[in-house]
Amino acid sequence: MRGVKKQNLPSKTCIVCQRPFSWRKKWEKIWDEVKYCSNQCRKHK
Prior knowledge:
The structure is a single chain. The protein has 45 residues and is of the alpha+beta class. It has one helix spanning 39-43; strands at 11-13, 20-22. It has one domain. Strands 1-2 form a two-stranded antiparallel sheet. The chain is elongated and about 35 Å long.
């Protein structure tokens, strides 16, 4: 993802709050497994 502009980053929809969230560097290796936009949504699954 290096060199990609912010508006061109992949995004997903959170399965709890239904809000879209964008790719983050810390999720680089696990992007396919990410389902929640935040720890708060993860706790309220």
